[in-house]
Design brief:
single chain, 436 residues, 5-stranded mixed sheet, 9 helices, 30% helix
């Protein structure tokens, strides 16, 4: 019995195989007749074709991305490789570059890093060392803000308790701001003060803080915002010029003026080179950081002292190297003259602090003397709107910074502040933008 049950018999195995073959024959015949094999083949072919199409599409995407990166931030033509004398543990301008950056105009951090974006606007890097932060994450906004204020306050104070980066707008004849008691949602939608709604201001400010913290700096327009349309037609801007035209950060442009603070913010916003970046007027803390940056590189507090040696003032004696100048620009009969036409009044020793009746407005970047760390005309030429608010006046909440062409450099340094109304516009106040 034990020997007979050791395994299947040969006869049983043969019978089993025959039965399986019969069943297989019936199944194959049935499947063949149903066309299932043909359909399976078609499905396989379609799957292969679909995979090949997907691979082709992915390859196109990859080539596009690699081509973009190769022209901008990586690969053989990596723009980052053109940046030098930078400690990336302290500051990282390459990571902060906008999409489609065309060119590194100046890559030496000791001279001031300058890039040209996809719109041909030029931006200068303002270094804010990462080592100053006690914050550990980019969303610790209050801590980052406090770190920045402490940085610009010690040892040379660029700040004042009379001004703050705070949203403000006019509700009828009443000035409202973010500290207003029982601020309504309708009031928060107003943008006729600083050019931003309550929520836009908060979003931009937090984005700026995060960017400065993460990248160790921010971009500032190399020049005062120019009116490319006015320059093309050689027109002097007037109160009726409005804010049509192209707002640019380029050399040899007639500065945008006769714009309110809110209009200036609109112009700055138009300069955004891509959807991943924000452009705006400088917040007050950014202007202070720019002054700190220049002073750190210069080895002295030149932005707080007499700026006549590097700014366009009535007591300046600048040598022009390009562009145009306009004597008494507020006059309706004033004209723009090329720098090499009748400039003797501009550069002679007779133009001193005792001869303040002669003054001129310059196109952007007209003199290399006004260039500090590749930022032009931060001192003199035009006052410049910022997103600061004067805390103690409901009539004059809007702040502007720097000096102006018709005053003395000893009285209005690059770090100075001025105030005016939300509706004020004049030839002497221009915008400058920041990119973050």
């Amino acid at each position: 019995m034990k020997e007979q049950n050791k395994g299947i018999t040969l006869i049983a195995l043969v019978i089993t195989i025959i039965i399986l073959l019969i069943l297989a024959g019936i199944s194959i015949a049935s499947l063949t007749g149903s066309g299932l094999f043909e359909k399976a083949g078609e499905a396989k072919n379609k799957s292969v074709e679909a995979q090949e199409g997907e691979n082709t599409t992915l390859k196109e995407y990859e080539d596009t991305i690699n081509g973009f990166l190769g022209n901008n931030l990586s690969g053989g033509s990596n723009l980052g490789e053109e940046i030098k004398n930078v400690d990336t543990s302290i500051t990282d301008p390459v990571s902060a570059m906008p999409d489609g950056t065309k060119e590194v105009v100046e890559g030496d951090a000791n001279k001031g890093i300058v890039i040209k974006d996809s719109k041909d606007n030029e931006w200068t890097w303002v270094e804010v060392p990462k080592t100053i932060f006690t914050a550990t994450e980019s969303k610790q906004y209050d801590t980052i803000k406090a770190d920045l204020i402490n940085y610009v306050t010690t040892p040379t104070n660029y700040r004042t308790s009379s001004f703050a980066d705070e949203w403000h707008a006019l509700d009828g004849e009443i000035l409202v701001n973010e500290r207003t008691t029982n601020l309504t949602e309708e009031q928060k939608k107003l943008n006729n003060g600083c050019g931003l709604t309550y929520y836009e201001y908060k979003e931009n400010y937090e984005k700026m803080l995060s960017s400065v913290f993460s990248n160790g700096g921010f971009w500032i327009s190399r020049y005062e915002i120019g009116d490319a349309t006015a320059t093309a037609s050689n027109k002097t801007r007037t109160a009726s010029s409005g804010i049509t035209g192209e707002a640019v950060s380029r050399i040899d442009q007639i500065p945008y003026n006769y714009v309110t603070c809110s209009q200036a913010q609109t112009l700055a916003d138009r300069m955004k080179p891509d959807t991943n970046k924000t452009t705006s007027l400088l917040f007050g803390i950014q202007w202070d950081l720019t002054c700190k940056f220049i002073d750190e590189k210069a080895g002295s507090a030149i932005t707080k002292g007499d700026c006549k040696e590097w700014g366009n003032y009535t007591d300046s004696s600048l040598t022009l190297s390009r562009g145009k100048y306009n004597v008494y620009p507020e006059s309706p009969t004033s004209i723009w003259k090329p720098f090499n036409e009748d400039t003797e009044n501009y550069v002679t020793s007779s133009q001193t602090s005792s001869n303040t009746s002669y003054y001129q407005l310059l196109t952007t970047g007209s003199s290399e003397q006004t260039n500090k760390m590749n930022i032009y005309d931060l001192a003199g030429n035009e006052f410049e709107w910022t997103l600061e608010r004067w805390m103690f006046d409901s009539i004059n909440p809007c702040a502007y910074r720097g000096g102006v062409y018709y005053l003395n450099g000893s009285d209005y340094s690059a770090s100075c502040r001025g105030i005016t109304t939300t509706s004020h516009s004049y030839i002497s106040i221009s915008p400058r933008a920041t990119l973050y």
